[in-house]
Amino acid sequence: MSHPTGGVDDQHAEPEAIQAIRRKHPWRFVLAVVLVVLAALFVYDAAFNRPVFAWPEVGKYLFDTRIIGAIGYTLQLTVYSMIIAIVLGVLLAVMRQSPNPVVKAVSWVYLWLFRGTPVYVQLTFWGLVTVIYKTITIGIPFTDAVVTLTTKDLLSYYTLAIIGLALNEAAYMAEIVRAGLLAVDKGQDEAATALGLGWWHTMTRVVLPQAMRVIIPPTGNEVISMLKTTSLVAAVPFIGELFTRQRDIAAVTYQPVPMLIVASIWYLVITSILMVGQYYLEKHFAKGIGQRPDVQRPSVATETITVVGEAEPGHPTYTEEDGRTSIVPPHSGTGGGGR
To answer: Region Disordered: what ranges (predicted)?
Structure first.
């Protein structure tokens, strides 16, 4: 607020810079030191005081051809299962939103069944498929079979492992996709319909691109989870993946701990690569989200606030009929602002 006797230079003088003093947090430093010391003690103990770790054995089998081959099978199980799960999950999510009560009920029962039972139990059942259904017949009901296939010859343990993992994961992907679709405002769908876009173009060009920023983060987590879930396919039984292969080697060397460390190292390496890919995918689909808009400039010219009833130099006054003196407001600026 300007003073009646103050000049123009006093009104617009630059304020002195604030000398901010950073607040000290000594306990944060103490906690950091304690954590670093504990980590160093753990590493030292694991490296020199625990012979059961057998680090030479870890280095010996880390790049063993059997381990590398098992990593290939693990990646195949992860990729193939996730592709099938994503496709089936999208279908189940659409079915959950269908106005047809039968279609919606089928989707709900599928989710209830596969989310309500452990994946290990499901994989065990898939391993018994060749026993429960020894043959598969194709033909018209109540007539002679046209084609009869032996289940054991048709479905290998590798294929059954992929099917078991994919069907279980599809139940979770369906809920992730459904949450992403529901996150898009209904007005987007209505606007696309008003523009004459069909269902396919509306989903692929309007709804799904906006839903991806909600779908990608949990999907990335599910991919990482699927990588580790492949260790359960021994229930089928399929013995080619990483965990089962290291267990077979440990059964011969009688040193299970080093082989567990080898498997853990490779799981960590692959998971780290997947996390980097997930980060860039999230960054790509989150473009334009969370960015602060530019500060809107005022449309009215602003000036130094003055005391009511006191005229600034250069502002004319006039006398009203009752004898009061009023300040004539400026009219030359934008929105009534002067100067």
So the answer is: 311-339
